[in-house]
Amino acid sequence: MNFDLPDAITDYLQELDAFIEDAIRPLELQDDNQRFFDHRREWARTDFERGGLPRPEWEALLAEARRRADRAGHLRFPLPREYGGQDGSHLAMTAIREHLAARGLGLHNDLQNEHSIVANNPFVLLFRDFGTHAQQQAFIHGMLDEHLHLAFGLTEPDHGSDATHMETAAVPEARDGVDGWRIDGEKMWTTGMHLATHCVVFARTHGNAGDASGITAFIVPADAPGVVIEEYLWTFNMPTDHPRVSFTDVWVPDDAILGAAGDGLAVAQHVVHENRIRQAASSLGAAQYCINESVTYARRRKPFGQALAKNQAIQFPLVELATEAEMLRLLIRQTAWQMDTMPKLEIERRFSDRVAMCNYRANRLCCEAADRAMQVFGALGYSRHQPFEHIYRHHRRYRITEGSEEIQIRKVAGYLFGYTGPGKWRDADATVE
What we know:
Blueprint: H1 7-29, H2 41-45, E1 46-47, E2 53-54, H3 56-71, H4 90-102, E3 109-110, E4 115-116, H5 122-130, H6 133-144, E5 150-153, E6 169-172, E7 180-187, E8 198-204, E9 215-221, E10 227-232, E11 243-253, E12 257-258, H7 264-268, H8 272-300, H9 312-339, H10 344-350, H11 352-377, H12 379-382, H13 388-395, H14 405-416
């Protein structure tokens, strides 16, 4: 067995490094753009007088970096070639996401707002696989060119991880002779709504609370009458673009349905495995950055006349973190490689537990590594003059979002004990003799 990354991937990582140094790093250094990454970063990025939203100049800088990456052929790397991508594999994307995060904070990769010179673009795949031809024509290239922006309205104030008890409802209603739907309800954490031209809103159209079926995805114009941004929720890591949004007597025509009526949860979960394995790789990369920086600092810092690195109290915790990082790297890459060998539905059936393992452990590792780096660096590590507090505050969110770690552990338990997955027992109450 060969556990080395293919040459095509390692060569591409070098190509990305060269692009960063040639096109992205100079942009980061000009016009005091370092304020977005040094100790001033939270202040520079956040418009505290405008609800805590990202400052326009911060978002403009990110957009320029993406334009440069797109012109160079990197931004759309994981997408199909028909959309300007390179059909990037799961394995390649995990290697790329880890590599970029391991470089530390910078304009090349700032996951606070899912920015990267190699983008994820999950909505493109949603429209490719669920959209009608008209929807694909109207939205896909608009999203890629960034003159259309979509938000995602799934989570509700009283229903976080459980979307099946959704209270947002849509009922059939014709207006001006056109068949359509009236939507009423409220959504939380509707990320990016301040820029969105549309929001994919999930609403129950039939069935009972708790049913997995009967929920439908609707493409709702963000400026439709009855759509109101009620507040922006300030978070552990600012700025915020996560509002609570109400939908009151909002009407859309029948052709606003994305996918099949009643199968909205399939739309919502369509790219969950791709997102989770890539997020795991990003958290692993950020954790590795914290470990590497801690080791370097411990060798350089010499209190009481000798390097910190000589103390076992410094060595042992970093050894534990480095060991888990190595084990996770193997698991993430093996899982990604296996995902590349099978169709999407087969991934859900056979490897959902492996993706969950990768994700929850990597997100937790990143928080532990950032916390340890703060401790090794001492008061300087606690300050904003080092990036560790930012890394901790940002990656702490991923232990909750994209499926909380408890939800993912439950997924693993379902596979382990045979309640779901390929080893599902016919009799869930059967006991082993």
